[in-house]
């Protein structure tokens, strides 16, 4: 599971962002200041940092420059300032994106997903869910000695579901993760792909199933866990 570090001295914003990203399927780590954040980055090696600009002791610009001095993890800055000069300062410090408060939590989620896709980290390279093995580098899905090479969208959809077994992903989130947040089609496309994946899995194993959670979305269930 991908790890996102959220850094903000405002406990309300810290919790809001953490809840949103946890629901989106990320493992969230929290820091209340820049010094704590640097220690966590060295210990935990997160995949992305969401950093507030206006923090006492060490502001977000300074923290971003320090992060850039020893690691290449992407940084998304949050700030109450929306002036062009402030955005320029943010990007010059090494940030990958910039959001102005107040913001819609869903937009933050979209931006985090987009940044990680650019860094090719949207899903781990190798995923295991029970007997199911997914190789994101070779686009193989295998169970035992049997191997599948499903179409790309089916592969991406299965990868997202398998990245967090037994976790319910909303239909909206799955469409955004696989088809992009600007997708203008309907949910029938998702339903068709889920049906095809189910048929393929059914031929290989009865230990891994995709379960419909009515009114919400889908989850990949590993029986016996």
Which structural traits does this protein have?
alpha/beta; elongated; Arc Repressor Mutant, subunit A; Rossmann fold; 225 residues; 5-stranded parallel sheet; 2 domains; 8 helices; 4-stranded antiparallel sheet; 12 strands
Can you give a write-up of this model?
- The chain is an alpha/beta fold and 225 residues long.
- It has 2 domains: 3-118, Rossmann fold, CATH 3.40.50; 126-222, Winged helix-like DNA-binding domain superfamily/Winged helix DNA-binding domain (Arc Repressor Mutant, subunit A).
- Helix content is 41%, strand content 24%.
- The protein has 8 helices and 12 strands.
- The strands form 3 sheets. Strands 2-1-3-4-5 form a 5-stranded parallel β-sheet, sandwiched between helices.
- Strand 6 and strand 7 (132-135) form a beta hairpin.
- Helix 6 (152-162) packs across helix 8 (188-204).
- It starts with a strand and ends with a strand.
- The relative contact order is 0.11.
- The mean pLDDT is 87.
Give the structure's gist in a few sentences.
The protein has 8 helices and 12 strands. With 225 residues, the chain is an alpha/beta fold.
Write the layout of secondary structure elements.
Elements: E1 3-7, H1 11-23, E2 27-31, H2 34-44, E3 48-52, H3 60-68, E4 75-79, H4 84-92, E5 97-100, H5 105-118, E6 126-129, E7 132-135, E8 140-143, E9 146-148, H6 152-162, E10 169-170, H7 171-179, H8 188-204, E11 208-213, E12 217-222
Parallel strand pairs: 1-2, 1-3, 3-4, 4-5
Antiparallel strand pairs: 6-7, 7-8, 8-9, 10-12, 11-12
